[in-house]
Design brief:
The complex is a heterodimer of chains A (about 260) and B (about 475). With about 260 residues, chain A is of the alpha+beta class. Helix content of chain A is about 35%, strand content about 25%. Chain A contains eight helices and ten strands. The chains are: A alpha+beta (about 260), B alpha+beta (about 475).
Chain lengths: ~260, ~475
């Protein structure tokens, strides 16, 4: 399976700086989105550091350090390990100096190996799968309101309106040890992946997002109009969207390319 | 049924006839060991049980349990075989299954032990790799200190680690954090020469004309180094001020203050005042090269168990008084007279150090409203934030004198507020109550020095020095 990706980030209309970060690697099939938090510029640092450590991990030898979950594939375990390392690094930096104290970040990362998609996340940044015209959320937010919904204390509608929407139950870099929630699924030709921070998911409903993505000409235009939509609805937080199209190389694609060459 | 063996004769020197009779008797009575048809089947079954047990079960269960289970199986099998032999005379070849169990167990357990050792090695290699990777990530994010921490955990003998460290050193230089760069290069240098690190260390540790080569102590916001002036090979103390440690907004103000202090003190030349040789700015530090002193400050002589004899106190305080007299005459007030700023050299000389906050009196505009100095030794007018002159230094010297005589501070307070209140309003306990032995004249001097009213004090250092020396006569 191949992946065509595009990502965009925007400061939004209210915040003075952008604490979101993302990283895309088409060849490796790796998408990462992080939403930093903490005073001054430390949120930016936390998300930037987490993303760069995950990038460096996959560009390096990708050795699995620490425990493995045998119920997941090796690729998924590697993704979990990269996030474990990122957590350790961000935590160390946060402890190293008062200016970084209390910084942390959410993280959502997907890794496509063959037909298997590995999903890992901490916090309230989300991954969605768009398949056959419907959009499914692949990640459960680690947030207070999500807990309340799970325990049937409030409804999803109440949760969307809640004041406590931004309170996280888990974040990367807050504790010395932190494991990401892992998941796996098998992708099909034509699947679309969407990774976003809460700056997008809080501003734009899933249905609207689906409309935008299905009507967009290409990945870049889709990202552009998703950010516009979030800003139109208030742009209260930094907005980051990353979109990935899964496609299969057709057996006759080489032939098509060959034809294309002569048509020119 | 096959007859496989017969019972052997019991004694050593049995006549052949008896042996033959014995054997025949045994055959007739059926009193011999048999190997039943099912023996081979049983042996095969046991091998089939023990084989998979060794191969599949032992690796899965804990070491303690596998040892216990294996022992129980072995004993059960041996006892069963012995029982069959003893009770029924059935001979089962117990050895092969037992050997399989025993050797299989040993092989599996030792293999497990060897493999975990190997895994540990792999983990250690991982952590070096991990530290390198984390270090690079930190470096990429501009967290150079954290990066250095990570690289330091990697073996420095490794060429690739040296390269990483070298690049980190260059990054530190680019950020103008020269002391950190030097620390990195020195770390590499532990493992021998590498590229041009020696030159770099030399270049970075030379501040202006004066070479800094080691830390000798730290004082307040400034750091004191031991240095060498290469032109005349004179050892000097270097007080540096690192701009990187100062807020960007304050840097101009602090810089100005530092040079003003250095300039003011540089004008003074007196045997009892620490000489300033050189002042300048290089890279991101301002530095001041001073006379290098070999001795200690007065602080330890203010402890009750270390008090100096009266003549020595008089000598020290009168030396300070004459130094102050000279400085005051040149328009400079020390403003921070305290035991820690008065040095006694090993040859007995007295030096007043750190005219760190000394100000030219003429530029007294900035003095108004600025409270500086150690509260215990501050004069009432300093506390009130008024303009101060040389007589304020004499009050502070009075506090030092009081402490040198009695081992106690004249003014105390649980909080800075009480201390300040006491300095401005309450009279100190009479010195003779604490140290009855001192001459009356000394008590008078102390009292006069600690007068709240500026006009009631000694007006010059010289007057104080004269009075003090008169006490000894």
């Amino acid at each position: 399976m191949n992946l065509t990706v595009c990502g965009k980030t925007d400061q939004g209309l209210v915040r003075a700086n952008n604490e979101d970060n993302f990283y895309l690697d088409e060849k490796m099939g790796l998408l990462v989105v992080a939403d930093g938090m903490g005073g001054h510029a430390s949120g930016e640092k936390a998300s930037g550091l987490a993303v760069s450590i995950i990038r460096d991990y996959f560009q390096g030898q990708q050795k699995i350090i620490g425990g493995q979950d045998p119920s997941f594939s090796e690729a998924t375990n590697r993704l979990g390990c990269a996030i474990r390392l990122a957590n350790q690094a961000v935590y160390e930096v946060a402890q190293s100096s008062p200016q970084f104290k209390g910084m942390g970040t959410t993280i959502v990362a997907v890794l496509l190996t063959g037909r298997k998609l590995s999903i890992a996340h901490i916090g309230d940044s989300r991954a969605y799968l768009i398949r056959a015209g419907s959009m499914d959320q692949l990640t459960d937010d680690h947030s207070m309101v999500q807990e309340q919904v799970k325990r049937n204390l409030i409804t999803q509608e109440e949760a969307d309106q809640s004041e406590m929407k931004n309170i996280l139950t888990k974040a990367l870099g807050i504790q010395p040890e932190m494991e990401a929630d892992l998941d796996e699924l098998t992708v099909l030709d034509g699947d679309i992946l969407l990774l976003c921070t809460d700056g997008f998911s809080n501003m734009v409903t899933d249905d609207d997002a689906l409309d935008i993505i299905s009507s967009a000409q290409n990945a870049s235009a889709a990202c552009e109009s998703m950010i516009d939509a979030a800003n139109r609805n208030g742009g209260k937080d930094n907005i980051t969207v990353v979109i990935g199209y899964v496609w299969k190389e057709k057996w006759y694609s080489a032939l098509m390319k060959f034809m294309e060459f002569f048509r020119r | 049924m096959r007859v496989s063996s017969s019972k052997a004769p019991v004694a050593v020197n049995v006549p052949p006839g008896t042996v033959i009779a014995n054997v025949i008797g045994n055959i007739i009575n059926g009193d011999h060991i048999t190997r039943p048809d099912w023996a081979l089947t049983l042996e095969l079954i046991m091998i089939l049980i023990f084989g998979p047990y060794v191969a599949l079960v032992i690796p899965q269960i804990k070491a303690g349990i596998s040892a216990a289970v294996s022992l129980v199986l072995l004993l059960a099998w041996m006892i069963a075989a012995i029982y069959l032999f003893a009770a029924y005379g059935h001979w089962v070849k117990a050895l092969y299954p037992a050997l399989l169990l025993l050797i299989g167990y040993i092989v599996i357990v030792s293999k497990r032990y060897l493999l975990t050792e190997k895994a540990k090695d792999r983990m250690e290699a991982d952590s070096v790799e991990t530290n390198k990777m984390l270090g690079l990530s930190f470096q990429g994010q501009g967290l150079l200190d954290m990066a250095f921490d990570k690289f330091r955990k990697c073996p420095v003998e490794d060429e690739s680690v040296k390269d990483l460290l070298y690049n980190l050193g260059l990054d530190f230089e680019r950020k103008r954090m020269f002391n950190k760069a030097v620390a990195v290069y020195q770390h590499i240098a532990q493992a021998g020469a590498f590229k041009d690190i020696d030159d770099r260390i030399k270049k970075l540790t030379t501040a202006g004309e004066t070479m800094i080569f080691g830390l000798s102590g730290a004082r307040k916001e400034a750091t004191v180094f031991l240095g060498k002036d290469p032109r005349i090979n004179r050892e000097v103390a270097i007080k540096t001020l690192r701009y990187e440690e100062i807020d960007a907004e304050q840097i101009d103000e602090v810089k100005k203050r530092f040079f003003r202090e250095a300039e003011a003190a540089g004008k003074l030349s007196h045997p009892n005042i620490v000489t300033i040789y050189d002042v300048g700015e290089d890279y991101e530090i301002a530095y001041m090269a001073m006379e290098l002193l070999d001795g200690s400050d007065l602080a330890k002589y203010t402890k009750k168990e270390n008090l100096l004899p009266t003549p020595e106190i008089v000598r020290i305080v009168s030396s300070v008084a004459s130094a102050l007299d000279y400085a005051h005459a040149n328009g400079i007030v020390h403003r921070d007279i305290k035991p820690a700023n008065i040095m006694i050299l090993t040859n007995g000389e007295v030096k007043v150090a750190d005219f760190g906050i000394a100000r030219v009196m003429a530029t007294s505009k900035t003095q108004t409203g600025v409270v500086l100095g150690t509260p215990s030794y501050m004069s009432p007018e300093q506390i009130a934030g008024k303009k101060v002159d040389g007589r304020s230094d004499l009050f502070s010297l009075g506090v030092v004198l009081y402490e040198l005589i009695s081992g106690e501070k004249p003014f105390n307070g649980d909080s800075i507020a009480t201390l300040m209140y006491n300095i401005t309003t309450t009279a100190p306990q009479a010195i003779q109550e604490l140290s009855p032995a001192i001459p009356d004249a000394m008590a008078g001097i102390v009292e006069k020095l600690l007068a709240k009213d500026v006009e009631a004090r000694y007006q010059t250092g010289k007057a104080l020095a004269d009075d003090l020396l008169a006490c000894l006569k």
